[in-house]
Amino acid sequence: MASIRLILRTTQADQSGHSPLYIRLIKDRRTKFISAGVKLKENEWDGAKQKVKKNHPNSARMNASLSQKIADAEGQIADMERKIKTVSINKLKEAIKGKEVPNFFEYAYSRCEKIKGSVSFGTYKNYKIYTKKFETYIGTKDVYFDDMTVSVLKDYMAHMGNVLKNGATTQRYSIMILAIMFKEAMKEDIIPEYMYPFNKLTLKKDSQKRVFLNKDQIEALTKLELKEGKKADLWRDLFLFSIYAGGLRFSDVIELQYSNYNQEEQRIKKVIRKTGRLHQFKIGKVAIDILNKYSKADAQPDDYIFPIITDKKIYNKNEEARFVVSSKENHSANFQLNRMGKVLKLAFPLSFHLSRHSFATNALNNGMRIEHVSKLMDHTDISTTQIYAKIISEELDKAVDNYIY
Cβ(377)–Cβ(246) under 8 Å? Predict the structure, then answer.
């Protein structure tokens, strides 16, 4: 037999001190909470008598309404338990609240499909992956927005850390995806703001230091003996090209077409994949030499300069196809580069993205103005570029300390 009781959830109090009142449903030692649609201050609720205190101006009307809700809920439970002997607590909850609060997973997966065309395929895929990750933890899709309490989310974070061995950054990202779904549902007035549990969570990031190749390490990589014409040689060239071409991102390097390069002006002009902005800048001798190494005299303007994308038709079919090809080639590049890094005895794994870090830190070290570095990297906000300036300052402090002591 299921039991019900009214509970004031003081752990969900808002800034004005009002907490939501819930109908607590217990069956087979399992508990579910259903919003009663009421918010009260702690001193306005008598938990023992299950009534709103008289110090609330509308206590009589509210008590009558709550009594009716409890009576209706008890009636629903009695009817269902009479009809279905093994009725689950989730079915009882659904029967009591009707359509008041939607199913979280139904909404989340539907939302993913709605935004599919307005975000990158990578973002769409991550939304689905991290929603599925939470579903796997919960073990059922029969979860409503008001089931996702602070305690449930804290238990999920503990599971990620202790069982899945996820770091703080991964935990944070996993929770943020769920929070996005809540915010979208709130914008659509599907759920009330007080159901949002994430502002009571503390989300941390792993402390990460951006690593890069210094001038000597870049020179060592350049001189590293590799078999010409092999994939390792190709990825080394593209990595170095990125360093000497403004830290151009991986997808933009492999997508570089002949029409993007003005040979007379020695200038690249391209719409950046990540930002969608038209970006143009001049490149120097090292980058030009690498371009010339792979350039073909009979190429068409829409041909790709570097021999990575072998089937233009498949690659340009849709965003998903581009994502799959780019991810596969990026994995190949990182595998080869990491092997080179081990030969060079680098203290960190070498990956293609470090070409971007290497450009920024070396450019600043060589005296380039931070505004120019920011422009070349196509940063939206110069504060992003300032991270590299901080690295330079830390390296300088370290050099001074080593010299003095």
Answer: yes
